[in-house]
Design brief:
heterodimer; A: 296 residues; mainly alpha; MetI-like fold; 11 helices; 78% helix; flat; B: 257 residues; alpha/beta; Rossmann fold; 6-stranded mixed beta sheet; 3-stranded antiparallel beta sheet
Chain lengths: 296, 257
């Protein structure tokens, strides 16, 4: 019998191989998944939100019409939106938004770096986890406003006081996102990674952290929410001279008993919160879509 | 039957084995999973391990791949051994190409080199045009082929397969038997293939080793002399499968008494 191991070709095997390849190709083309059509997505996602906003305005107007409070205490959506439009034309308003947003973003960026590093270190080390793992969760439950008296004594009425409280608020959530994500990485992927030659840091960099990314993102999102709350609380308490901010304006509006202006500012704060949340949601959707996790 | 061409060179006893297990015992607490396993696998040999549940097949592969250590005895592997699982275990955040390139990336191979090597490997499993797809866009059989290509990317001479086709439909499995056989032959790999499908073992193996359950011991082994390429429905494959199944049933029945 002719045995040919070096070239691996004879008419028999060649035709067998091409027959096998043809069948594989057939199965593959039958199996290949079709991409879902996009198109109307945007409108489908937008209209329920617009309808809900409309209903909320309607309910607000209803309360105003009921005469529960005099209109100088509780103005309707009309005057408030008009006030918002007027404020939008003044440079002070935008300066205040700029200062508040800058504080928020800088605080969040520092929190993200500290939180991610802390999360990785705690997730990796058994000793550190038992030492401070539960403390991180505990810190998360502590209202950040309770830190302000200490922050003001340590840093006076300064940017550092606000930054300190943002960090205290956001870092634990972000670190927890990393720790939870690492805990829930499927063991099979870790085995596969080790089996392919990933050890130590490379295993983290190429397998564990990418696998934990969805949870890390939700930790970041939660961290932003805490940072934003701490920031606004801080701006109400820590008014710095010549540094207009949304919190300072809010305090002023209360002192002036100008509820129209106050509610306009509150709507601004809400809209910023929703906009940032939408960014996180888009990132999260992107991650899920890449991995084929269904999102509706 | 025309001339057989995919026959591996007959293993010679003088050559150092690719994998050698001597007196290997593995204990998990009170449970004895493997008991005194002696097994030599020659370079280029295709060995199939069969046995009922609890025979320690997967434990044995973990020892050979060094994901785990034996309690007593020695495991020697000439070069590296990589493992393929029943699930493809692809990284869902990477494309098929990047999955296949991962072992080379970990080994520090530069991007352009590893990407063209990964494309060649995808070509070897007939998936070149699916290089940019992500795992969730591929069928189970395609994912398993990507996993095979990724395992080949480690360039390990020893390939360990833990029921890699167990979750696939019969038609896909038959085709993948052909694919695996030709890849094994052209690359001169040493394969240890675990399955509880006896026909599959006889279809693929040069040798079939039957392990007992709790604890796992080598009960008996058979050389498969049927010429390659075989088909799972070949009479010679069926005849030997029947004999092995009889031995396997006797082994399982022993536990019922």
């Amino acid at each position: 019998m002719a045995v040919d191991t070096t070239t691996g070709t004879s008419t028999g095997t060649a035709s067998r191989a091409s027959e096998v390849h043809a069948q594989l190709r057939g199965l593959d083309s039958l199996d290949a998944a079709d991409g879902a059509p996009r198109g109307r997505r945007l409108w489908e996602a937008a209209w329920p939100k617009l309808a809900a906003a409309g209903l909320a305005l309607l309910a607000w107007q209803g309360v105003v019409w009921s005469g529960w409070k005099p209109s100088y205490l509780l103005p309707g959506p009309g005057p408030v939106l008009a006030e918002l439009g007027r404020q939008g034309t003044t440079p002070e308003f935008w300066t205040a938004i700029g200062i508040t947003m800058t504080r928020g973003l800088v605080g969040f960026a520092i929190s993200a770096v500290v939180g991610l590093a802390l999360g990785v270190v705690v997730a990796k080390s058994r000793v550190l986890r038992s030492a401070i793992g539960s403390m991180i969760t505990g810190l998360q439950t502590m209202p950040s406003i309770a830190w302000f008296p200490l922050a003001i004594l340590l840093f006076q009425l300064s940017e550092q006081a606000i930054l300190f409280v943002i960090l205290i608020g956001a870092v634990p959530s972000i670190a927890n996102g990393v720790i939870t994500g690492v805990d829930y990485v499927p063991g099979l992927l870790v085995r596969a990674g080790r089996n392919l030659g990933a050890r130590g840091l490379a295993l983290y960099r190429h397998v564990v952290l990418p696998a934990a990314l969805p949870s890390i993102t939700s930790g970041l999102k939660q961290g932003w929410a805490f940072a934003w709350r701490s920031l606004l609380a801080g701006e109400l308490l820590v008014a710095i001279a010549n540094r207009p901010s949304l919190g300072v304006f809010l305090t002023q509006s209360r002192e002036l008993q100008d509820t129209t202006y106050m509610i306009a500012l509150m709507i601004t704060i809400l809209v910023i919160g929703i906009a940032v949340d939408a960014v996180f949601a888009a990132v999260d959707r992107g991650i899920r879509a890449r991995r084929g996790v269904a999102t509706r | 039957m025309t001339a057989l061409t995919l026959q591996a060179p007959a293993p010679e006893q003088t050559v150092a084995p690719a994998v050698r297990l001597e007196g290997v015992t593995k204990r998990f607490g009170a449970v004895l999973a493997l008991d005194g396993i002696d097994l030599d696998v020659q370079p280029g040999e295709f060995v199939c391990l069969v046995g009922a549940s609890g025979c320690g097949k997967s434990t044995l592969l973990n020892l050979v791949s060094r994901l785990d250590k034996p309690s007593t005895g020695t495991v020697e592997v000439a070069g590296r051994a990589t493992l393929m699982f029943q699930e493809a275990a692809l990284f869902p955040w990477l494309s098929a190409l990047d999955n296949v390139a991962m072992p080379m990336r970990l080994a520090g191979v530069e991007r352009s080199t590893r990407e063209s090597a990964a494309l060649d490997l995808l070509d070897a499993v007939q998936l070149r045009e699916f290089a940019s797809k992500r795992p969730h866009e591929l069928s189970g059989g395609m994912r398993q082929r990507v996993a095979l290509a990724r395992t080949l990317g480690t360039a390990a001479p020893v390939l360990l397969m833990d029921e890699p086709f167990g979750a696939l439909d019969a038609m896909t499995r038959d085709l993948l038997h052909d694919e695996l056989e030709s890849i094994w032959a052209t690359r001169g790999l040493t394969v240890i293939f675990v399955t509880h499908n006896v026909r599959e073992a006889v279809r693929l193996g040069d040798r079939v080793v039957l392990l007992s359950s709790r604890p796992g011991r080598v009960v008996e082994e058979w050389r498969v002399d049927a010429p390659r390429p075989r088909r799972i429905e070949d009479p010679a494959v069926s005849a030997l499968s029947g004999r092995i199944l009889t031995a396997l049933r006797a082994e399982v029945a022993r536990h019922g008494r």
